[in-house]
């Protein structure tokens, strides 16, 4: 009996809940695997998918969003060995699972902590409530490949935003495998979109896109590129999260800054009844 030929995997993009190849047809090799090389057109398609998902995701109950993030943790736990086989340390996979759970727990608590009734001089109720910013572009950190990725995606989506992630060009396998986890976690299509390839090609398109509301430059290590992206983002007054320090420790308590940075506050006045 002849030895069977193994099915060689091609790592594709994740856009709108589907796994398309790049419209350019390009790919590059990482660990002897073909990985799709996203183009500017792919970045624009991802923004369209993210925008289409905003209404449903932002309109979902906080409890439901928390359940879905917890489901992502469950699915990631079940595929632990797959990530280890890609070279991700087991401790990092465990930390990434715990990070999903941590953010899932905040889903229905954030409005209680950062919203509330304001004292006013008059016969009115004055209530402030946090709301999602909308579509967020994210440049993911190169390392740690998995924990860093989860640490920038989870705080953005738990609050009701949708994201387009430009994954690290040198560490894309963990990103696409995480996309496969999310695709089986009840996450609506378009809430998370992942592009692999050169961030120098996709990030400027995202920074300049008029339908992107905020951009997270955490994974940008080139100061000149960061400046270019900030200038492009200023065209439609995007909210900008500056690059993280190169020595940032992703294993520490993440705090709430990443969640609150991508929220807006809506204040409502309502007359008191007699």
Automatic annotation (TrEMBL):
<keyword id="KW-0560">Oxidoreductase</keyword>
<dbReference type="Pfam" id="PF00171">
    <property type="entry name" value="Aldedh"/>
</dbReference>
<dbReference type="InterPro" id="IPR016161">
    <property type="entry name" value="Ald_DH/histidinol_DH"/>
</dbReference>
<dbReference type="InterPro" id="IPR015590">
    <property type="entry name" value="Aldehyde_DH_dom"/>
</dbReference>
<protein>
    <submittedName>
        <fullName>Aldehyde dehydrogenase family protein</fullName>
    </submittedName>
</protein>
<dbReference type="InterPro" id="IPR016162">
    <property type="entry name" value="Ald_DH_N"/>
</dbReference>
<feature type="domain" description="Aldehyde dehydrogenase">
    <location>
        <begin position="34"/>
        <end position="240"/>
    </location>
</feature>
